[in-house]
Design brief:
Length: 278
């Protein structure tokens, strides 16, 4: 413990004590000291992410509106290039820890798919949640990235599904599911079939059970990070399942016709802890 503490500068002493306690207990909740150090920019960015302030500023994944330029597009996006807890990351060299049970309680829902120009967003009605580390997060929506945003031990996957949950305090909990090329997933196929071709359009589809998008093995990595799109709010508790599900080449190619590339580059882990469930 003392060796870890000495590796970090004094100006982050509040975060150090919090993170050391987290490693010792196996938890990864955002504690008071870390919240104090990050509260102002994170809280501001969460407001923007929730659509509560600031006019829309166009951004993208390539060219002059791509990730390298996000911080210059709006003052509300400044943390995208200056933050120290940004996502996604390469999930490697995780520290084994007792992270507790990952309890996922998602309910079947009717597909409501919106092409927002950056991805397809599937809205979730109230009632679904996940819990870990003493916190319960309410499912708000889920969406897909092509290719995967997180790497797993240096490996990138064709797709990644993010299940975005919210806390009452304004923070987020995101469950990430990696998707490998293989046997087709019927639920994912229904979701892709409902994607509207035009930006700003919402399509509907049949009932699906989002739990069919989960692997049987539930080993996971946890870390404190950010939204992977502007405003890049550093207010996310990440849970990424280490076992991927599969999709057929046809399903992956079909999604790529709508979104050829919508993944943010890997961000440095910096001085954060990446923990792996035992």
């Amino acid at each position: 413990m003392h060796a870890l503490k000495n590796m970090l500068p004094n100006k982050n002493s509040g975060k150090v004590l919090t993170l050391l306690g987290l490693v010792a207990s196996g938890g990864l909740a955002v504690q008071v000291a870390a919240q104090t150090a990050l509260k102002t920019p994170a809280a501001k960015a969460v407001e923007v992410a929730s659509g509560e302030r600031a006019a829309h500023v166009e951004w993208g994944y390539t060219g002059p509106t791509g990730p390298d330029h996000w911080s210059t597009l709006s003052k509300d996006y400044a943390i995208c290039n200056s933050g120290e807890q940004e996502s996604p990351i390469d999930l490697k060299d995780a520290i084994p820890a007792d992270l507790g049970r990952l309890a996922i309680a998602w309910k079947p829902l009717a597909i409501r798919a919106t092409n927002n120009g950056h991805t397809v967003q599937y809205d979730a009605p109230p009632g679904s949640s996940f819990a870990v580390g003493g916190k319960t997060y309410a499912l708000a929506q889920f969406h897909i990235h092509h290719p995967s945003e997180h790497l797993l031990d240096g490996r990138r996957f064709p797709l990644e599904i993010h299940f975005v949950h919210k806390l009452t305090d304004g923070g987020f909990g995101v469950v990430g599911v990696l998707v490998a090329n293989g046997v087709g997933n019927p639920t994912l196929g229904k979701m892709i079939a409902a994607i509207p071709a035009e930006e700003g359009v919402t399509g509907t589809g049949p009932m699906i059970d989002p739990r069919a998008l989960l692997p049987v093995a539930r080993g996971f990595d946890r870390y404190e990070g950010s939204l992977t799109t502007p405003p890049c709010a550093e207010a996310v508790d990440w849970v990424v399942l280490r076992t991927p599900i599969t999709a057929s080449a046809a399903q992956i190619d079909r999604f790529a016709t709508f979104f050829p590339f919508n993944a943010r580059p890997i961000q440095p882990l910096d001085r954060r802890f990446l923990l792996a469930s035992r």
